[in-house]
Amino acid sequence: MLEFRRPWIWITLSIALVLGVVWGSLQPATGSPMPEGFDKVEHFVTYMTLALWFTGMVRPERYWVVVGALLLLGLSMEIGQYLMHVGRTADPYDMVANTAGVALGIVAALRVSGGWIGKVDAWLS
What we know:
Layout: H1 7-26, H2 38-55, H3 63-84, H4 92-113, H5 116-124
Helix pairs in contact: 1-2, 2-3, 2-4, 3-4
């Protein structure tokens, strides 16, 4: 992890972000109709956002850890949905969307945004 002046802020926000994704992934289905395929957009944007967030906290040579952790998180959520039987269903195409989101997030971090949290942390000082 990069050095931060206020690591507790970034760690707390990171935990809240991951817990929000877990909650959103495992809560019972609400029954509200969604446009066909919209959930894939949600998966893509969510995992791209997570990739951008966590690449802001680590050096580029550690991005593989971010990729692995996010793909494991996505797979865990799909398995959880399968096992819970509360109106949610596991879908392999959700993992495709998750993977595509992580990939785009990593590419964006490599080209533009990597280490952004360190820059914001320094600016806040």
